[in-house]
């Protein structure tokens, strides 16, 4: 692996447009040094920052999920276990209507 990355290499790693990567470098979200018009990115610093961003965003998602769960409990809702169906709320389901029976001797032409 190269010790120095170009913005094009970073964009390829992130599977994004080089302009999108440049916006992140300009905003200071990703580490890099600007020499003239070009960004020079130390590979180790880039990978370390990407690792930190991944951990931060995962923590934010966990915190948001905790807030959602706490709000659901506060509103009297039950917590959902992953893969479980939510409890029925509101109106109850109507029973299926009774279909009239066919008189004897009547057959479907496809299924006699």
Description:
The protein is mostly helical and 112 residues long. The protein has a domain at 4-74. The chain contains 3 helices and 3 strands. It has helices at residues 7-14, 18-26, 43-74; strands spanning 4-6, 33-35, 38-42. Strands 1-3-2 form a 3-stranded antiparallel sheet. A hairpin with a 2-residue loop joins strand 2 and strand 3. Helix 1 (7-14) crosses helix 2 (18-26).
Write the H/E string, N to C.
EHHEEH
Shape: elongated
Determine the fraction of residues in helical runs and give it as a percent range. Answer: 40-55%
Distance between the termini: 73 Å
Strands, helices and their partners?
Layout: E1 4-6, H1 7-14, H2 18-26, E2 33-35, E3 38-42, H3 43-74
Helix pairs in contact: 1-2
Main features:
10% strand, 3-stranded antiparallel sheet, 112 residues, mainly alpha
Report a brief summary of the structure.
Helix content is 44%, strand content 10%.
